[in-house]
Amino acid sequence: VGLGGRVGGSLREAVETGLARRFGPGKWIEAWLPPQVYLNRALARTRRVDPARLEKEASALLLKQPGVARVYTRRRLEGGPPPEQDPWFIRVARGFDPQRSGDLHVLLKPFWLFSSERGTTHGSPYEYDTHVPLILSGPGIRPGVYYQSAEIVDVAPTLAVLLGMEFPTWRDGRVLTEVLTDLPFQDNQ
Fewer beta carbons within 10 angstroms: which end of the chain, N or C? Predict the structure, then answer.
């Protein structure tokens, strides 16, 4: 049993074929920019297909394909966090923009790639793609190696403190107090 694989145009073909079988012929995918799928809403209106039903059907088709772990629909992402803890949902939702994101977000299984080409990519939410060093240097930074967990959303509030700037109280992330010297306040979030 292999540990991963590649998906090229096979996912798009499977969804197009399945949606055409279910709702009639047509180009049901307007754009495919992995991991985002933009469904053809104009065609859905013409065929009187409810967008939620179209998302659900396309999602079900994708979940039957090798390498697909989860599919998050626009409706689900706009609805907020699920009652059960789903760390993948939270990571995907943080990158969701209602104005620009697709109707579906496809999460592949670990070590699977959206490519039929040789080589690799980055950008999965799995630790092998997200566990990277963060290097800070300069005035106000305490030299050392720190093993506390930090997220990308922690960089902005930390830099704001270093620069003496105000930042919104609604922000995501925390100030990386462990690396700073002479803090004007303590942020225990």
Answer: N
Are the C-beta atoms of 35 and 107 separated by less than 8 Å?
A: yes
Cα-Cα-Cα-Cα dihedral sign, residues 145, 147, 153, 157: negative
Q: Quote the CA–CA distance of 124 and 109 in Å, as a whole number.
A: 9
Taking only the tens place, the pLDDT of each residue in 136-185 is: 998 899 999 998 888 888 998 999 888 888 877 767 788 999 999 876 55
DSSP 173: S
Cis (ω within 30 of 0) for the bond into 35?
yes
Residue 166 burial (CB count, 10 A): 6
In whole angstroms, what is the distance from residue 56 CA to residue 132 CA? 35
- CA dist., res. 24 & res. 20, Å (int): 5
* Rounded-to-integer distance, Cα 80 and Cα 61, Å: 23
The 3-class secondary structure across 47-106, one letter per residue, is CCCCHHHHHHHHHHHHHCCCCEEEEEEHHHHHCCCCCCCCHHHHHHHHCCCCCCCCCEEE
- Cα 82 to chain center, whole Å? 15
Tell me how far apart the alpha carbons of residues 28 and 32 are, in angstroms, rounded to a whole number: 11
Give the CA distances from residue 187 to residues 66, 84, 107, 137, 156, in Å, rounded to whole numbers and listed in that order.
45, 28, 34, 20, 13
